[in-house]
Amino acid sequence: MLQLTNIYKTFNVGTPDERSVFGNFDFYVKKGDFVTLVGGNGSGKSTLFNLIAGVLLPDAGSIVLDGTDITTMLEHKRAQMVGRIFQDPLKGTAPNMTVEENLAIAYMRSTGRSFFSRVSKKDKTYLRERVAQLGMGLEDRMGAQVGLLSGGQRQAMTLSMATLVTPRLLLLDEHTAALDPVSAEKIMNLTRDIVAEQQITTIMITHNLSSAIETGNRIIMLDTGKIVVDIAGERRRRLTVKELLEIFQQASRKEFDSELALH
Amino acid sequence: MSLVAATGALELGFAYALLAFGIYISFRILNIPDLTVDGSFVLGAAVSAVLTGSGHPVPGIAVAALAGCAAGCVTAIQQTKFGIPPILAGILTMTGLYSINLLVMSGKANVPMLGKTNVFSLLEKAADIRYSKLVILFFVVLLVFLFYNYFFKTQLGLSIRATGDNEAMVRASSIDTDMAKIIGFGLSNATVAVSGALVAQMQQSADINMGAGMIVIGLASLIIGDAILKNKTVFRGLLSVIIGSVVYRFLIALILTTSLPPSFLKLISALVVAVAISLPNLRVKTGFSRLRIREGE
User: Fold this and answer.
1) A176 CB contacts (<8 Å, ≥6 apart)?
2) Which A residues in the span 203-262 are in contact with B, Cβ-Cβ below 8 Å?
3) Residues B155, A110: C-beta atoms closer than 8 Å
4) pTM of the model
5) Which residues of A touch B158 (CB under 8 A)?
6) Phi, psi (5° rounding) for residue A175?
7) Among positive and negative, which fits the CA dihedral A210, A214, A215, A216?
8) Cβ neighbours of B159 in A, within 8 Å
9) Among candidates A48, A154, A30, A28, which has minimal Cα distance to A94?
10) Minimal CA–CA distance to A233: which of A218, A248, A212?
11) Which residue, A129, B46, B78, B118, has most beta carbons within 10 Å?
């Protein structure tokens, strides 16, 4: 499904700030997998997402999605296959446009309409139905400006827009971290429902170890550009937060020790 | 104000409403200030004057639109493909256009069209109408208004609006934001050039310096319109632009009835824009200082 092979990425090459994030990095995600990705700050989680989404180009290596080599494909072209949701609820929607207009952009674009087509009555009914499924009361506010909605509502909209037409891969970048606990819970449940229903291959970055455990079927920990923990299957099902925390600490301590040993 | 002065103000208001539409697209919808307009306005006037001079007033306006569109695309390409900051890109195109405009006008600073048939005299000849200028300008503005009101709800129009509203989101919805900006700027400057083309035929001459300060006049119309009609939707936004442009012309006509010399018009326009933009900020600041005083008590 998603195959990253031999990825190299170094920032600020040739300056004193040179920082290598990935060297000889391999990563594979099976079709239909829901991977939760944990790791400390600077572990390379966001860089990994930026490479997959096409915001950054790798220095070397290849990225293949569903048999298509997307290593150097432009970001907006890749966006037809890869949906992405950010931590900041303001990032995924246009605030001065209405709920309906926002949804229409995502919908018409991905259904390959002509440039000059407008939202039809039928489309409007469909978009309303889809939004009603979010359970956020947005179906009654189709004409409201998105800037007037709460962070939770906006993030739910972003989720809906990214999955209106099923993407081949969904990237969730701590998408509930900026929300209050109730909204975060709601969005997390919505995410699980939508991903399960449409069987979307998904990678989710999270700092919340319990949602990392409650969600998905495979957990990965990244540390300084390496996968240090990769648990799936039966072991993943029995994993507890306490265990994960221990593994987390062990893995980072090992990394820390080996770094010390080098000096 | 006399009827003649009022009719004149209304005519100019409609003619310059097209200019304001153009600036509305770059400034409000795409959220990028575009200084190309000072040049593309003259470009439209020059093209229209030359073609009217050779007996083609109607094609003159169409070709002016195409020329303006090209100028807008040049500015947008500088920004998107070559990374030149938007303001500088506009200034560069505007500066370059000065030479192009002179070239179009065969090196002369002024191209008169006295006695030549223009779109207004065409209508007068065809149908015996008294207010031919007003009628033509009204219908052109109406047409452009209806077009944009339709266009900005199509998929392409929505994409352009979203590009100005949240560029990151647009790229994530697989839309080429560079293309959206280029099309937006092309449309914007095409509309501005049509405004210049109509003004030139109205005044029966094109002048190399007639574009100076057009961006300020357009912005003044936008701001006046905004104050009269809060413009959250495209329909209301476009409508407010027309109202703003007409009101601005009536204000100018009123000022002209006083003893103030007409050369002060540009200064007054600049002041209107500066005051209108700074008012909300000043209000916030004085609000804070009042709070501080209260705390001190």
Assistant:
1) A155, A183, A184, A187, A188, A206, A208, A211
2) none
3) no
4) 0.86
5) 97, 101, 104-105, 108
6) -75, -5
7) positive
8) 105, 109
9) A154
10) A218
11) B46
- Distance (Å) from the C-alpha of residue A215 to the closest C-alpha of chain B? 24
Task: Determine the residue type at A255.
Answer: E
Q: Are strands A34-38 and A218-223 parallel, antiparallel or unpaired?
A: parallel
Can you give the pLDDT at residue A97?
Answer: 93
Chain B residues whose CB is inside 8 A of the A75 CB are 171
Rounded CA-CA distance B148/B128 in Å is 31
Dig out the tokens for B118 from the structure. 């223009």
Find chain B residues with C-beta within 8 A of A84's C-beta.
172
Q: What is the mean pLDDT of residues A198-205?
A: 94
Give the C-alpha separation, B39 to B99, whole Å. Answer: 10
Amino acid residing at A109: R
Question: Measuring CA to CA, how many Å separate A173 from each of A71, A85, B139?
Answer: 20, 6, 51
* Backbone CA torsion sign across B158, B161, B162, B167: positive
CA–CA separation, A60 and A71 (whole Å): 9
> Residue B200 in contact with residue B189, Cβ under 8 Å?
no
Shortest CA distance to B51 belongs to which of B37, B67, B71? Answer: B67
Residue A15 contacts B, CB cutoff 8 Å: no
pLDDT (0 to 100) of residue B296: 55
Q: Is the pLDDT of residue A92 over 70?
A: yes
In chain A the first and final C-alpha atoms are separated, in Å, by 40
DSSP state, residue B27: I
Q: How far is CA B63 from CA B6, B107, B115, B152, in A?
A: 31, 19, 21, 24
Let me know: does B120 contact B132? Beta carbons within 8 Å: yes
